[in-house]
Each structure stands twice: as C-alpha cells, then as structure tokens.
Amino acid sequence: MKTLLILRHAKSSWKEDHLSDHERPLNKRGRNDAPKMGRLLSEKQLTPQLILSSDAKRARETVERVTEACGYKGEIIFSKALYAAGQEAYIRLLKELDDKYSHVMVVGHNPGLEELVERLTGEDHRLPTAALVKVKLPIVSWHELVKSVNGELAGLWSPRQLSE
User: Fold this and answer.
1) Contact predicate 67/76, CB 8 Å
2) How is residue 43 annotated by DSSP?
3) pTM of the model
4) Domain residues for 23?
5) Which pLDDT score, from 0 to 100, does residue 147 have?
6) What are the C-alpha distances in Å from 41 to residues 7, 69, 127, 132, 158?
C-alpha cells in the first residue's frame, strides 16, 4: 500500500500586481497557515519520505514553511510540470517514482489537486488553501496508478480546523 498526501499551497498575495502569477508570494495568512500544516504532519506522524511540488513561488514558500515546522529533511523535487497542472501531470510524475517511497506528498494548485483527489478516491472535495488530504492507495507500485485506483480518503484537514 502507498500513501499520498496532497497539499494545496497556502494563501497567496495579490498585492503586487506587477508580478506574474507564477511569482506571487504567500500573504500573511498563508505564512501563518503553512507551519500549522507542518505541525499537523508531525503530530499525526504523516511526514513524507519525498515531496513533489510545483515550482511556483507560493508553492515553494508553502513547502519551506511546512517542512521547517515538521522537521522534514528529505528530498524535495520542484517541477514546472506541476505549475497550474491538471491531475494527469501529478499522475505522470507519481507513476515514475521509485517504489522505495511508500509515503509521498505533492504540493500544488487547484483545480488540479481537487481533480486528483476525485480521480484517486471517487470523492469530490473542495480544497481551500493549505488544505491537506491523505489518500491510502491499494497499490504496491506507483506504476499501478490508473484511472480507477479506488483509493481511500483517510484524512482531510484545513488550517481553519486547527488550533493555533
């Protein structure tokens, strides 16, 4: 069995309208919410073995704050392919993973992440910024990710549900 954590980037800023969408940073709420999700990973013993993330600035900043808060020291792969990507891009990257990784986290954007959750679990969930989803996948190899995986939604958290 494999476990996939799906994390939407934290809230981003729209103040600097001269920046491209790719370069938008986190806003104050995002900078506060990301560490909350990192602490949740640590408290629930969900710290992944590998992180795949969009290379957008808001995703990078989310990853930095989450990993600092949970003490993650593993590999982080930032991919342009995950910027504003649909669920197929996540599936493509996940299918290429070495099977030594049983617990992986992806960090990215909507609507692609909501599509990914629906594809893997058959359930439609709204993912606010910095939301974290845990999906248990009934596969032995990442290569087995196909259209009908029948994964189990094993957790869904948002920063607003967590105490300071």
Assistant:
1) yes
2) H
3) 0.95
4) 2-161
5) 62
6) 11, 9, 17, 9, 12
